[in-house]
């Protein structure tokens, strides 16, 4: 395992860092599709992009509605955010025992051990929540770096939706993975 750098802090998103996070997400999403490698289900030719952060939802208690939590990789000297991981509740109350994880690092921040550290931080947070039993994520079939990281942390593939997205001429499979947060769960 690579040691994450000392001048980068892995911390919960601070209220005053919202603009830094939005700037990071814009830079990060703009990288999807570079060299033909997509990691979000949006065509770079379109204006649409993922929903991003809702600071209002970061203040909702876990299990109490559309809660979100964000952890970021932030340069200690400049305050610039270069990576993130988020946890979001499902819309349905009947899925309140699960949440959905998303992660992303800007190109220059990858392969430096930060992705693993962000994932470990999010998993530890989820494991500490009594009401949560499962952590879920979706990942493109061709995204070997991400799938390798998730598998190394105990995520198990639960399904695959073939030809889920089409971006230009590229057909993309969506892989479903889950991590049990405690023992004795239904299998
Ligand atoms: C996927 C991603 C989050 C991984 O974060 P990272 O900081 O680059 O990864 P790390 O340096 O922490 O490495 C963690 C593990 O990921 C795997 N990994 C990383 N890069 C890899 C590569 N090029 N090929 C195969 N496995 C790779 C390895 O298992 C690695 O563990 P190891 O170093 O002990 O071998 C990051 O590359 C990224 O943000 N990519 C673009 C956005 C994205 O794909 N998001 C996920 C969408 S589901």
Describe the secondary structure blueprint for this structure:
Elements: E1 8-12, H1 18-30, H2 55-58, E2 68-75, E3 81-89, E4 98-105, H3 114-127, E5 134-140, H4 144-152, E6 156-167, E7 170-180
Parallel strand pairs: 4-5
Antiparallel strand pairs: 1-2, 2-3, 3-4, 5-7, 6-7
The structure holds coenzyme A.
Residues 1-2, 39, 103-105, 110-116, 139, 143-146, 148-149, 152 line the site of coenzyme A.
What does this structure look like?
With 187 residues, the protein is α+β, with helices and mostly antiparallel strands. The chain has a domain at 8-132: Aminopeptidase (3-Layer(aba) Sandwich), CATH 3.40.630. It has helices at residues 18-30, 55-58, 114-127, 144-152; strands at 8-12, 68-75, 81-89, 98-105, 134-140, 156-167, 170-180. A hairpin with a 2-residue loop joins strand 6 and strand 7 (170-180). The radius of gyration is 16 Å and the shape is globular. The structure holds coenzyme A. Coenzyme A binds next to strand 4, helix 3 and helix 4.
Task: Write a short abstract of this structure.
This protein has 187 residues and is α+β, with helices and mostly antiparallel strands. It has helices spanning 18-30, 55-58, 114-127, 144-152, and strands at residues 8-12, 68-75, 81-89, 98-105, 134-140, 156-167, 170-180. The longest helix is centred in the middle third of the chain and has 14 residues, at 114-127.
């Amino acid at each position: 395992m690579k040691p994450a750098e000392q001048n980068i802090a892995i911390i919960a998103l601070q209220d005053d860092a919202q603009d830094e996070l939005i700037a990071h997400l814009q830079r990060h999403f703009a990288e999807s599709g570079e060299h033909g490698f997509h990691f979000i289900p949006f065509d770079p030719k379109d204006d649409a992009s993922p929903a991003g952060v809702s600071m209002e939802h970061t203040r909702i208690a876990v299990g109490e509605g559309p809660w979100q939590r964000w952890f970021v990789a932030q340069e200690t000297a400049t305050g610039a955010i270069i990576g993130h991981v988020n946890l979001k509740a499902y819309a349905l109350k009947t899925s309140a025992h699960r949440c959905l994880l998303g992660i992303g690092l800007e190109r220059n921040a990858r392969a430096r051990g930060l992705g693993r550290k962000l994932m470990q931080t999010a998993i530890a947070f989820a494991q500490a929540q009594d009401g949560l039993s499962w952590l879920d994520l979706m990942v493109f079939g061709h995204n070997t770096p991400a799938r390798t990281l998730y598998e190394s942390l105990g995520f198990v593939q639960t399904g695959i939706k073939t030809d889920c997205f089409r971006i230009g001429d590229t057909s993309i499979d969506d892989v479903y993975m889950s991590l049990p947060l405690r023992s004795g769960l239904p299998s």
